[in-house]
Structure formats: C-alpha cells, structure tokens
Amino acid sequence: MTDTAIAPTAELVKLENVVKHFPLRRRGFGRREFVHSVDDVTISLEGGRSLGIVGESGSGKSTLARIMLGLQEPDSGQVDVAGVQVTSLKRKDDKAFRRKAQIVFQDPHSVMDPRMTVRQSLTAVLAQHRIGDGPEREARIVQALREVGLEAEYLDRYPADCSGGQLQRIVIARALLLEPTLLVCDEPTSALDASVQAKVLNLISQLRRERELTMVLISHDLRVVRLTSDRVAVMYLGQIVETADREELFTGARHPYTLALLAAATHVKGDEQVVAQGEPPSPVHPPAGCRFNTRCPLATDRCREEAPQLAEVAPGHQVRCHRWSESRELLAEITGTEPHDVNDGV
C-alpha cells in the first residue's frame, strides 16, 4: 500500500547550504576535531507533500530534522519553514512557530511525563498556548484521541499503563493538538513491535491526507519511506547523495549507496556485501573525494580525490556521483542481478 499524493502548494520548507558540526572534547594541545553531522545540505518541500529522509544511523538525518524545527541551531545556512526564517527566530516568536511545526520522536516514553495522566499532558499543551477554556480543552483532547483510534478512557491512564503503540498514538495526538502545518516524524515506529509498526504508519499517512499536512519522515528503512512519502532524500555521512520523487527513486535509483539500501531492504543474499562493503567511515574524519568511495565497488581515483556535486540527472532527480550514468549496469554485472524493487509493506 502506498500513500495517496496531495496536490502540492507553494514551497513550505526550504533549507539552503545548511552545515552543522559538533565539536569533540579536546585532548591535550591537539587541533580540535568535529563531527560532520550535516554538510552543506540544500533541500525543499512543497506544502501538502511528504518527504522521506533515509540513511544509516549517524548519517545526519535526525540532526537535519531538529535544525528544520529550530531545536538545533546550524553553524551556517538558511532554514525557512511556513514563512518563518527559523535560523533567526527570536525567543518571543518561538511559541507561535511551535504551533506551525511539530515533531513526533522515536521513543514516546521520552515525550510523556510519567507522573502525569494522558489528560494532564494533553491539556498542558493547550494551556501553554492559551487555547480554549476547560470544557473546550477537554473536547479537543477527546477528539484528538479519537482521531488516532483511541477512546476517552485512555485520558485517565498514565504512560506506564499504555502499550508502546498506544503511547505513540497519544504522542501523535499531542503533536496534532496545535493543528500544525508541518509534522516531522523522527523514526516514529522503530521503538515499536513489528506487529504495530504498519498500523502506526498507516495512521500517520491517513492523518496527513485528512489534514493536508506537510510531513517529513526520518527513517533508516526504505520500506517505511515507500509507504509514507511522496519524495525521498538519501543521506550518507552528512550529505544528501540522491533525491527524487518516490517512484522515480525506487525504480530508477542511480547512486551506489541508494542501490545498496534497496538491496538490503529486499534481503537479496550477497547484494548488501557486494554493493556496500564494510562499515561507514568516521564522521569526524570523512573521506576525501566522494564520501562513499571507501565502500563503493565502482570507486575510481577520481572518486577518491574529487568530491562530486549534487547534479540533476532527470527532472526532479538529483545524484551526487561521478559514475551515476553507468552505476546500475555496472553493479548488475558485479552482483549478477538486476536492482530489486522494495515491497510497499513493512
């Protein structure tokens, strides 16, 4: 099952040349080192559309999402969301921006105060933003729970009384209480049992359609992105290496790293090892040239010396690779198989 696209509107999210490096603790008198979490990322998303950002752990996905929401300040670059210049957001305007953009985190237990009932937690969100009075707030939170498939009886429960899936539904309801324009979901199902992951993802997709939300979904799993996103960006070691509309990416991927993720997602024996060899390099000392060159079977001297730029290879399809035009054919020769498609389900 794939999501139904919503007619796009004007550009709602725009990041330009965003950089974020985290300093490491200096040892002795040596040069200070930095984790290259996000390196010169430029990306945009139209209103009403959904973007999936996918990559291995440590690729910079979550940092990029936090920068997008003003929860992390970039070292440089511009971030505009829903008409707000996030990088120059003043404290007095922060509350108004929070009503426009909300996030659903990976672990629902980290969001909910264990000492408060669900009713208290949800009501506190409305009270903080001075929305409604007592009866109106009660009506809003009851309706919010029903939207995520839970009855009002959950309002008197504590987080410990809820299953992981139920609690994530409550966190989604909490995020939607302020009726945001943008919803960012950071690995929203990775902490859940496999049996409830698909249900939560279907719920997120349904709510996005019904509310005509703009959504960014962070995941390490291409199958999750396939289910929820209109457009996909692939990150590796702090950089976007490929971006395209969903079907274009899943049927016509060109970057060897994207093809490695597709092979891993379809569990084709041997493909993962051949296409993406070894572990990712340290983000403290990323390789010269193409950052994927240490794991790529197609790497040449040029790849090891000259950093490729993100180039448009088809309308709306960008790839950061010197050998993108021959990547699929060469990898098919190496692995002895054609690139595989990813199942819609999870």
UniProtKB/TrEMBL annotation:
One of its GO terms (biological process) is transmembrane transport. The lineage of its organism: Bacteria, Bacillati, Actinomycetota, Actinomycetes, Propionibacteriales. This is Peptide/nickel transport system ATP-binding protein. Gene3D superfamilies: P-loop containing nucleotide triphosphate hydrolases. Residues 13-262 form the ABC transporter domain. Keywords: ATP-binding, Nucleotide-binding, Transport. Belongs to the ABC transporter superfamily. GO terms for molecular function: ATP binding; ATP hydrolysis activity. InterPro entries: AAA+_ATPase, ABC_transp_ATP-bind, ABC_transporter-like_ATP-bd, ABC_transporter-like_CS, Oligopep_ABC_C, P-loop_NTPase. NCBIfam families: oligo_HPY. It comes from Kribbella caucasensis.
